[in-house]
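wait is this the right file?? whatever heres the structure
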């Protein structure tokens, strides 16, 4: 073991998440309210439901759990993001194309950096949804604007070389000595703060005409965390309490409806932050007071990871709700709630049996020990009490919800022309792997691996069972 003055990767990750949260709470007061209310709701749920409340994660993990979001402009910047998060044991998982997922203009493709191994997630599951601007998509940018944008982006520096050097060391050595950890954490948090430097108003507004997201990414010389999201055990209750405190939430909770069957995937809701004063540089060079409204708050409830089949069913139900074209968010929620019970299994057991949800399987300690041989198949092993199924929590994101979150926090819808998506680059998962210079992992494959490894352990344990 290394000395006490050594910080392991997960300790760096936990410390980074905590410091980022402290910074965000200082600068965006409504976030502090959100964290407080989330904690209250979680304590109440724990009191009411007992151990059942922790079925999808121990309360320690859930209380510390956060995700953030950042947006960057170039593959080179994304590669650097990959190094900073690599130092924290976070790898790119999933490819999300938000250019199509929203009604308005969101010219980005995204991935999420997160820990991958089960024990790492249990220690601290911090994740960051990371979006990359798509200047080569002609539906958003013409050649001239694209060239200006790429020049502007090429000339800025998001991460100081000292930070990247420490990140590379931390990743290679899987941690840092305390003395270096402090500097690394300070530089990393600073890199994600909202800068106080003057914003070039004309350039910002030029990009805003394409999309508020384009301006947020390419209109300034730095990046920033745009939200941090705590996890809550009852998001409907949280929504009511936040509204009761006078914080105006968006009009819906995104994702699956509330119902009396198992919670699956992810439910999220958000609120807009306030204008924040930031200096603006006028075309004549003078600097005047201005404001940006680019940071917000979000909260989420996590459910069981679905298999590819389960996800296809979810997407199909969503499409059916869309097809009915409900006029309001409330009508939409009612429709989904009515549709769900007819199609989605109402128990975890049925979710597992129909191959719709992911579970890990574990040999039960007080299994039959009277010399019987265990039955040969999983359903019988479960039925006869040899093996227990634990739900796998969904650790990723949903493109539709993500697009909804982007959209609900934009002032204007911007413009997206019709036509073919990509004359220049095909923005897909492989392209993104190339940009970040790391494999973008497939979330379904990760869940499948987790499940099949647990089954291998069950098989080995039951064969070796001495009784
Ligand atoms: C990211 C929005 C996506 C989520 O939770 O789905 C997201 C952004 O606005 O940059 O964070
Ligand atoms: Ni989010």
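ok assuming it is, sequence goes like this
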């Amino acid at each position: 073991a290394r000395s006490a003055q050594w910080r392991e990767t997960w300790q760096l990750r936990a410390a980074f998440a905590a410091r980022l949260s402290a910074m965000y709470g200082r600068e965006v007061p409504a976030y502090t309210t959100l964290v407080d209310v989330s904690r209250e709701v979680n304590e109440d749920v724990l009191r009411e439901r007992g151990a059942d409340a922790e079925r999808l994660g121990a309360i320690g993990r859930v209380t510390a759990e956060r995700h953030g979001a950042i947006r960057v402009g170039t593959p080179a910047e994304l590669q650097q993001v990959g190094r900073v998060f690599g130092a924290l044991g976070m790898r790119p998982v999933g490819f999300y194309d938000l250019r199509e997922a929203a009604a308005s203009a969101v010219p980005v493709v995204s991935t999420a950096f997160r820990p991958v191994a089960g024990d790492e997630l249990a220690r601290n599951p911090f994740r960051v949804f990371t979006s990359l601007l798509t200047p080569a998509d002609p539906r958003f940018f013409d050649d001239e604007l694209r060239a200006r944008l790429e020049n502007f982006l090429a000339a800025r520096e998001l991460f100081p070389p000292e930070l990247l050097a420490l990140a590379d060391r931390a990743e290679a050595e899987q941690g840092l000595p305390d003395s270096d950890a402090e500097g690394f954490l300070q530089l990393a948090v600073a890199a994600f703060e909202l800068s106080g430097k003057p914003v070039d108003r004309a350039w910002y507004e030029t990009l805003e005409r394409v999309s508020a997201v384009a301006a947020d990414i390419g209109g300034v010389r730095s990046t920033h965390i745009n939200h941090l999201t705590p996890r809550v055990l009852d998001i409907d209750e949280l929504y009511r309490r936040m509204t009761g405190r006078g914080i105006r939430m968006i009009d819906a909770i995104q994702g699956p409806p509330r119902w009396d069957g198992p919670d699956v995937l992810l439910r999220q809701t958000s609120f807009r932050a306030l204008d924040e004063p930031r200096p603006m540089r006028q075309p004549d060079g003078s600097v005047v007071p201005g404001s940006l409204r680019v940071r917000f708050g979000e909260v989420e409830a996590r459910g069981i990871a679905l298999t590819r089949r389960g996800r296809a069913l979810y997407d199909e139900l969503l499409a059916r709700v869309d097809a009915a074209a409900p006029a309001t968010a409330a009508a939409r929620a009612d429709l989904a709630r009515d549709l769900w019970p007819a199609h989605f299994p109402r128990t975890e057991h049925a979710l597992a049996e129909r191959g719709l949800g992911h579970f890990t399987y574990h040999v039960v300690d007080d299994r039959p020990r009277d010399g019987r041989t265990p039955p040969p198949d999983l359903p019988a092993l479960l039925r006869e009490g040899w093996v227990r199924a634990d739900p796998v929590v969904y650790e990723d994101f949903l493109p539709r919800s993500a697009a909804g979150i982007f959209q609900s926090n934009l002032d204007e819808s911007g413009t997206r022309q019709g036509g073919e998506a990509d004359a220049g680059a095909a923005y897909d998962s492989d392209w993104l792997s190339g940009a970040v210079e790391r494999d973008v992992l497939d979330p379904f494959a990760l869940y499948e691996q987790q499940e099949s490894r647990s089954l291998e352990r069950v098989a080995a344990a039951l064969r070796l069972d001495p009784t």
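The two ends are 37 Å apart (CA to CA). so i think its the right one actually
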